[in-house]
């Protein structure tokens, strides 16, 4: 280590820092709990069987997570989705969980089949839903993140949202790499098979 501290002393310092992170997480939960939910429109997507509305994605549940995914062309979004897939059964025991991307449903289906994804997916044509939720950049390109919704007396409310990026709370890969000297050390997620095939087809 650059400051030359022993392993034991460094471990104690890290424990103190992680305790501060726990305190910050507690404060985040308190602030989140005090935020007034925002009512949102019943947006329309394209599902595997045709048009489907945001209200349908609740599938009879009160709570819903919608992942703002950039699609097969984004290696990191595919990496994050692989992680969600691993815990999907647990997520689905508490709330509905759906991944939305701008990809057409046929591309979503091929990608899901290739990677063994179990969660439902919907197409967000032109990233219209992502834009309404604030998940497009200034050039109109989709950005990654997660929004949480609740149904209340037939109305849809967004109760929370957060963007996705390396070292966020939603992908364990980066946190494990941080334990190694040099961290990720230039590592990057590999493009999905679907993205590679699409690029090859374009020549």
From TrEMBL:
Question: Keywords in UniProt for this one?
Answer: Coiled coil
One Pfam match:
DUF899
Identify the domain of life: Bacteria
Which segments does the entry list as coiled coil? 7-34
Q: Which InterPro entries match?
A: DUF899_thioredox (IPR010296), Thioredoxin-like_sf (IPR036249)
This chain belongs to the protein called: DUF899 family protein
Q: Which organism is it from?
A: Chelatococcus sambhunathii
